[in-house]
Amino acid sequence: MTIAANNDLLDIARRIGLEAGALAARRRAEGVEVAATKSSIVDVVTLADREVETYIRGALADVRPEDGFLGEESTGSTGRSGLTWIVDPIDGTVNYLYGIPQYAVSIAVVEGGADPQEWNALAGCVVNPATGEVFTAAQGGGAYLGAQQLQVNSDVSLEQTLLSTGFSYSAETRMRQGQVLAGILGRVRDIRRAGSAALDLCWVAAGRLDAYAERGLNPWDHAAGALVVREAGGRVGGFDGDAESARFLLAADESLAVELEPILRDLYASAGLI
């Protein structure tokens, strides 16, 4: 795909992302109702999650009917164009439920299907409806917050690293992740846990964080945000040169990622997480 074609796809993602974000914000103002739980009692889905995804899916089908779709709250579909839209209607649902202004609509389009190890991300948009911030990236075209081009922090030493992470919905896994946290906390500047993978990735791209690492992410959690990081000059990947996956994701400047990845790999292994 050309940069112009990628930008055309980004225009679609941005427009629909803004519309979906406005819908999510309206529903939040009206009051949030939990529709169901998923992997555990604390893994919730709201009625707004479902409504927003339905809206996004329909809007995309209107303009890109030949494309595939993978969203968090509905059954995926395979298209005929070779492109797939990867959507998280509300990333950070617990924040959304509690009224914490750190949640996002995340929309990406990739060449290929639902596997991050095989797809080629072309464009992505992450909208925070609570703040109005819009992060965008098109392959080969750079990453932006509004009109401001983004660049990851570089030449950051390990001891000066502001590292963000997240935790599993499984209590047992969270306890093991706490062991990892204890092992890294004394080696970095500090830790942040904000509750939205998509926004954490965009904050790495914007220089608000130096690095972000997490286990257990789904494709829709990181599809758009990972492209924003890469187009801001950062590296996103898994352990041992693998692509990002549910097993592990690390986003940072290249030199910091090279230093941080083996440390985290050893800590995850010691905690029984790999």
From TrEMBL:
Residues that hold Mg(2+) 1 according to the record: E72, D88, D91, D221
A Gene Ontology annotation in the biological process aspect, one of them, is:
signal transduction
Q: Which reaction does it catalyse?
A: a myo-inositol phosphate + H2O = myo-inositol + phosphate
- The name this protein goes by in its record: Inositol-1-monophosphatase
Q: What is its EC number?
A: 3.1.3.25
Classification via InterPro entries = IMPase (IPR033942), Inositol_monoP_metal-BS (IPR020583), Inositol_monophosphatase-like (IPR000760), Inositol_monophosphatase_CS (IPR020550)
What's the superkingdom here? Bacteria
UniProt cofactor(s): Mg(2+)
What top-tier enzyme class does this entry carry?
A: hydrolase
Keywords, in A-Z order: Hydrolase, Magnesium, Metal-binding
Entry binding sites for Mg(2+) 2: I90
This protein's species is: Agreia pratensis
